[in-house]
Each structure stands twice: as C-alpha cells, then as structure tokens.
C-alpha cells in the first residue's frame, strides 16, 4: 500500500524558492541579477571579440582564455532562466525534465571551467618550464584536442547525475532550497534510498574538483621552482604576474563553490536571505570578477580591450 501511495503522489514538478517570507525583495534581487548577468555577458563578449579579431592574441594562452570566457558565458546562462523567472516573474514551478536539464548544464559547465583552469595551468607551466618547446607542442590541433577532452570529461562525469535523479520518486516535498536546480538539493527531497546518488556525487567531486585542485598545487610548486631559476629579474616578475592572474581566477572559481557547499551543509542557522543571495550570485559573480582580473592583469588584452571599448583602431 505504501508503494502504491508513493506512486500516486510522486511529484513531477519542483517548486523553486525565492526569498522566503520577503517577496517584496525579489524584484530588487532580480534587478541586481539582471545587471550582473548583463555586465558579465557584455564583458565576456568583448574579450572574445578582441581575441578573435586581433592577430597578436592568437597564442595558446589566449586560446585557453577564450575557452574560459566561453565557459563563463555559458555557466551563468544555464541558471539564468529559472533564477530570473522566480525572482522577477514569480514563476516558481518547473517540471522534473526541465529541472534535471538545467542541473545537467550547470554541473557540466562547472566541470568544464575547472578543466579549462587546469589546461591554463598546464599552458603556464609549459611556457615557463619549457619555453623552447612551448610553441611546437601547443599547436592549434593540440589546443583543440585539449578543449575537446575537457568538455567530454565533464559531460561523461555529469551525464549519469540527471539519470540517477530521474529514477527517484519524489512523494513528500517538492520545494527546492534555491532558484535553480542542483543535484544535492533535489536529491534530498527523494523518498527512496539515495546512497547511489550520494556515492556517485562524491566520486564525481573527487574526480573533478579534488584532482584538479591537486594538479593546481603541483603545477604551482613546479612553476615557482622554475621561476626561482630564472636569471633575469624582469622575466621573473613577468612569469609571476602571469601566474598570479591564473591563481586569482582559480580562487574566484573554487572559493564561492566551497563557500556555497559549507553554508549549505553547516549554515542552516543563517538567515534564508543569506542562503538565497549566495545561491543566486555564486554562479554569475565569479565570471564577472574573472574577466576583470584577466583584462586588467594581462597587459596585451587590457590595451586592446580599452582601444575597442573607446572606439579606437586596434593596431600593432
């Protein structure tokens, strides 16, 4: 009888959450998010356009930067439809298929961004440690294969996640904690055994986030070891400046992700407003800050972006 009732009451829709108890604040949060999305979109499009148009930027470093920028465009866009609809239009109900589709894209682009940052660390390592072999090794074909491998790795790891969620019955509550669909948030609503989901989610995090973080630590150690052996102080500062930009981008990606996880697990005593604001901004805010870091700290890109933005002629 219990199994029959669960089948009858199995939810096929999810209710997304705005700011609990404060619906009048949703408009201002939605307006802020729209401005945030707009600045992120405009800045990333400008960077992509400059890299495409200017021949001087057709180098491995900037190709990887273009991959990062394209991912930074895709990651916020994957959550924007439901986030804006909840906070601005008060449309809080989504079907199970729409929810798991959004979940797939959010987690996939998150994995892609982590992989691209690893590829950029490898590029920086090759440029500093093996400068004579840098150009012959990192050809256009190799860069393309690296990008394809990063994408396929993320898709392959994330693809089972929505499939594992879709098989679960949801017969108690169908109200999610955020304005977008995330695996951990949807999994907790299931009225069945979720050990398989939990174990696979943990393995996916270890294989993507933990392994990538270890690669970053190892590459940083090897890069700084190589930098200390550079005779020219000017070249040393140039190498450290390039590495510093990458370290800032890595922190902008990992710190909000870790902070979101910690608050989700241990911040239940915090105000719902804190949870909502962090959940709504941890996807679009890092891409905006990341593009500022790279456009300001990377001298060539900064010069050409300023010229394009001011309507000047881009020249050599």
TrEMBL record:
<dbReference type="GO" id="GO:0004984">
    <property type="term" value="F:olfactory receptor activity"/>
</dbReference>
<feature type="transmembrane region" description="Helical">
    <location>
        <begin position="244"/>
        <end position="263"/>
    </location>
</feature>
<keyword id="KW-0812">Transmembrane</keyword>
<dbReference type="GO" id="GO:0004930">
    <property type="term" value="F:G protein-coupled receptor activity"/>
</dbReference>
<keyword id="KW-0807">Transducer</keyword>
<keyword id="KW-1133">Transmembrane helix</keyword>
<feature type="transmembrane region" description="Helical">
    <location>
        <begin position="62"/>
        <end position="84"/>
    </location>
</feature>
<feature type="transmembrane region" description="Helical">
    <location>
        <begin position="142"/>
        <end position="165"/>
    </location>
</feature>
<feature type="transmembrane region" description="Helical">
    <location>
        <begin position="199"/>
        <end position="224"/>
    </location>
</feature>
<feature type="transmembrane region" description="Helical">
    <location>
        <begin position="104"/>
        <end position="130"/>
    </location>
</feature>
<dbReference type="Pfam" id="PF13853">
    <property type="entry name" value="7tm_4"/>
</dbReference>
<keyword id="KW-0716">Sensory transduction</keyword>
<dbReference type="InterPro" id="IPR050402">
    <property type="entry name" value="OR51/52/56-like"/>
</dbReference>
<protein>
    <recommendedName>
        <fullName>G-protein coupled receptors family 1 profile domain-containing protein</fullName>
    </recommendedName>
</protein>
<dbReference type="GO" id="GO:0071396">
    <property type="term" value="P:cellular response to lipid"/>
</dbReference>
<feature type="domain" description="G-protein coupled receptors family 1 profile">
    <location>
        <begin position="43"/>
        <end position="294"/>
    </location>
</feature>
<keyword id="KW-0472">Membrane</keyword>
<dbReference type="InterPro" id="IPR000725">
    <property type="entry name" value="Olfact_rcpt"/>
</dbReference>
<feature type="transmembrane region" description="Helical">
    <location>
        <begin position="27"/>
        <end position="50"/>
    </location>
</feature>
<dbReference type="InterPro" id="IPR017452">
    <property type="entry name" value="GPCR_Rhodpsn_7TM"/>
</dbReference>
<keyword id="KW-0297">G-protein coupled receptor</keyword>
<keyword id="KW-0552">Olfaction</keyword>
<keyword id="KW-0675">Receptor</keyword>
<dbReference type="GO" id="GO:0005886">
    <property type="term" value="C:plasma membrane"/>
</dbReference>
